[in-house]
Amino acid sequence: MTHSTTTRIGLLALLWWLTAATAWAQNLTVTGRVLDATSQPQPGVTVLEQGTTNGTSTDGDGRFSLSNVPATATLVFSAVGSVTQTVPLNGRTTLEIRLATNQTELNEVVVTGSRATEGRSNILTTSPVDVISAREIKAYAQTDVTQILTYIAPSFQSTRQTVTDGTDFVDPATLRGLGPDQVLVLVNGKRRHTSALVNINGTPGRGSVGTDMNVIPPAAIKRIEVLREGAAAQYGSDAIAGVINIQLKDDTTGISVSSTAGQTTKSDGQVFQADANLGFGLGRRGFIDVSGQFSNRSFVDRSGPDTAPLIYLGTSGGNYPSGLSDAQKLDLKARDNALVAQNGFNRRDIRVGSADTRTYGSFVNAAYTLVPSIGLEAYFAGGLTRRTGRSGALYRLPTQVTQTDASIYPNGFLPFINSTVNDASAIVGLRGRVLGFAADLSNTYGRNALDYNVTNTLNASLPLGTSPTSFYAGQLAFQQNTTNLGFSRKFTEVGPLATLNVAFGGEFRVDNFQIVAGEEGSYRNYQRVVAPATTPMGSPTYAAGAAQGFPGYQPQDATNKSRTNLAGYLDFESDITEKLLLSLAGRAERYSDFGSNVSGKVAARYSILDGLALRGAISNGFRAPSLQQRYFTNSSTQFSGSVLRDVLTTNNDSPLTQAFGIESLKQEKSNNYSLGLTARILKTITLTVDAYQIDIRDRIVLSSQFNRDNPLVNTLLGTLPVQGIQFFANAVNTRTRGLDIVANERLTFGSDNRLTLTAAANFNETVVRSFNSSAFIDSNPSLQNTLFDRAQRARLENGQPRSKINLSADYGYKIFGVNLRTVRFGEVQTKDPNPARSFIDQTFSAKWVTDLTVSAQIIRNIGLSVGVNNLFNVYPDRLYQDPNNNEQSLAYSTADATNRGRFLYNSNQFGFNGAFYFGRLNFTL
């Protein structure tokens, strides 16, 4: 071969190589279809370019299209219940993929409850974890995070409240029957700030401060992990009952938009919600995921019939005079109704039910790789939410002369409490590898503020005819800043250990709580005399001061308090053998306002047989008293026994609190024990059963009301314009025992049928084991049994369902889907504070609530769902219509038979909205 020939061949080879390399370097658009093991289309499969965030998912027919993909790329196909498959493109532009069913792992991989660098299936963890996917979140018509969790996770409970001031707008949420402040909420694994609100009225979680999860748009959520076990040793304060970790979407490409509309069968409770999610990649080095939500929910009115006269001005009590015949009473009632018509009074304004709310929310989740060689990545997540609401207080009758002004409201009036919740949060951080360790440095900031405006009201103590009818009543605000640095690394074959994961780190947190006073007229008493003294030595009767419905925060209530917290933690997790997984965790913390705490945890999982394992944990935990519990103070109108009273809530530093012998608040301490079983049955069924016991010492509660009826209390209150006082104290020791059961099965049969069956249940019981009083209270018999009366004890022990059972079936056929779910809410009880009135105690029986949704993927980009929540229009048991049972029926006093706007139903199980019909339209691009 000549030199020239060799040169020509070499040039041709080089030209061919350059041409091929150029074509190979071009980005492609790859299309294809994904089928399951039975060759049926598999929707919802994640298709991802390996090593990037460039991805998509399959449609209802199993098809996908992914653009901007290098010819040399490898695609990853994954779906729950299927074996993940990696496919090198090698220049191909069309693919047909068959995913085999994963018989060993039908559950999501979870990261909550462990700092291991790799997640585990929730049947392979040492602790029980529920995983709620984005698909489950959107399956039914619940549009708030707390309501979604209530109907999916049996150990979680939240119900909208009514006539409870700020609690009407921030739903108290609980886990395993404990308090709202005994569950820690994380977002992307980072501590979420709590609400500014203190629940001081008669609701579940009275005296607690929870986290407002409803400010997070469901459209932003990838999945929710619910760790049902004490985890204070891993995550710090508040994690006595468990941890809820909300993982934001991070792999979305394209646009998804949905709109939901519906109402109850009584033509109220209208809901309109629109949400959207937009995700896009950043040059295959990162992503930005943006979500938004608008939600408008109208009030629900379930007030009882008003059978007494609306207006009868001829008697001081507003009741019919004695001795009247039925005909005379009917005549008076006709005159009353004529007055109603003449003055335009609307009976519907006397309403009891859930509040009007309107929410605007947005969230962003983003990450970008700064230095690929060391995996250095910057990330950000944050949101802004604004929620406005309006709820009714208690109706003021025209005959209640100390609380109204006939020249302004001749027929009485219903005050409205208008709230504005502004919530902001931001997580910024860097993560990468340092000396072989995965390192994560982050700063998390959050602020929650609640403003109150009272409308359709007055300050009755102003001269007649001069009071404004609306007031700014003040603001509660809480903010938190947390800086965290953590390291973790997985070692293999460490001595006799198969694996060893080591994690350690530190945290510094600053909390701040503020109370801002309202305008003067919202809280001041201007001393209008309603009736002169009847005797020379007597006192005149004065009108009530402050805004009716919600007295404003006073200047002496104004607060601006902060504290710091420094913590360090150390975690070990090891596969000791192929059968035994062991984890150890320890955490030490120091708070600037009450001292230090050390907690630890030991957890293990042992495989008895293939598919059968035991798991258990022992830990001690704690919960620091919130700043709100330490420093909150205000006056509010509440029920006490059979009387509506103005009650003063004093903070822990108040001389009045200390006069009762109450010491400074300290941390709650807990001991947690759990033992469970996990099993895989017939290769398609997973089963977990977990028993637990949680002992809590020095549990913080809001005391019962000490009233002026007691001479000693009357002396302590002096000239203060209130009739009662309450405060926070480490007052009780409790024990909670329970059992969680979760079973699910995923089936495919026939040519186009898919069926997922789930059965889950929680059974729990909380009992008060002992009380922590004070020497002063114990030495005065008249004060005993008041710090924590039988009504408060019943609220703690029986105020929430002791059992909840969830049965669901999700069926799919080609483009159609049917979701059917029924939930059994166990019984609850209420008790009167006075043992002599135990005849008023009531037990509300268990009820089943059934939801149904039918959906269809009409075309590739558009889906439609219609359905009904509470299909059989189930209501809780009615409350006893007893005018003395004021905390339930809203009667004003024993002598007042008007009983206007009384409750018919209790809202502590599942609410009293009845059936709700809805439609939802989904659009993806």
From TrEMBL:
InterPro entries assigned to the protein according to its UniProt record, in alphabetical order: Beta-barrel_TonB, Beta-barrel_TonB_sf, CarboxyPept-like_regulatory, Plug_dom, Plug_dom_sf, TonB-dep_rcpt-like
Main location (coarse class): membrane
Residue stretches making up the TonB-dependent receptor-like beta-barrel domain: 418-871
Domain TonB-dependent receptor plug: 125-243
Signal peptide from the UniProt entry: 1-25
Record keyword Transport present: yes
Keyword match Translocase: no
Subcellular location per the Swiss-Prot or TrEMBL entry: Cell outer membrane
Keyword annotations: Cell outer membrane, Membrane, Receptor, Signal, TonB box, Transmembrane, Transmembrane beta strand, Transport
Family statement drawn from the similarity comment of this UniProt entry: Belongs to the TonB-dependent receptor family.
Protein name: TonB-dependent receptor
